Write the structure tokens for this entry.
Amino acid sequence: MQSMRRALFVLLTACGGGGGFPDAPPIDGPTLGTFSAMWSVVDQNSQPISCDRIGGQTMTVLVHNKAFDGGSTQIFTCGTGMGTSQAILTGTYKFDFELGGTVGLLAKSTVQDNVDIAADTTTPLEPLLFQVKATGGLALNLSAGDPAGNCESGANIQSFTISATHNSDATCEPLTLAIAAGATKPAHTYTIDCTTPVETNYCIETDQQMTVTNVPSDGYTMHIRGKVAGQNCYKNDDSIQVPPLDMTLTRTLNLARQTQITGC
């Protein structure tokens, strides 16, 4: 019995006067830091342009810790123009930058290499600049939905008025449309008059594509009216996005018949 008491005393003495267990040594974990980025977007003339104008969606940072193979990505919203990353391991990094949008990759910015990310600190990167050619083209067809076409044997449209307004500020864009020849109709050109819409003296058939290039990239609303016996019996007010990088949007604009108008 006495020997058991002596053993218990030794155990309690080893565990400290509080009767608990010895303090464990701290476990070393990974040290983390963050980075911040600021960016701007300019057009082919080095003029500032919004992400919305070019369909910009994301600014992606390709993150490579030079102590390891591979890498990761940090994704920011294009229109914010700034952001702070999620936590990454401390170390020396290489950063690549890509601006992405509805048409894919829009532009890259200058690589930043040998950037040290310190623990518990936000490291600012050098300001980023993305330059995007902010013009594109349109290839449009008109359809009144009549199987026989838009003109005499179909919807019987005699003339059209056409205009295009920027969704960003509601201003009109003075475009000149090249109207290709169709199976039954000759080629024409149509110039949008932003003051007074010009009425054609001809019908545009479904197979006549209207094209234009070098259009400032932006969202537009096309205002198209097709007249029957002097009445605006068909209309279209579709919103479209002219892409950047000299890409072309191809679209058929469907004309809605205005049955509420007498004579339509």
In short: The CA atoms of residues 150 and 156 lie 6 Å apart. The first strand starts at residue 32 and ends at 42. Confidence is low (pLDDT under 50) at residues 1-26.
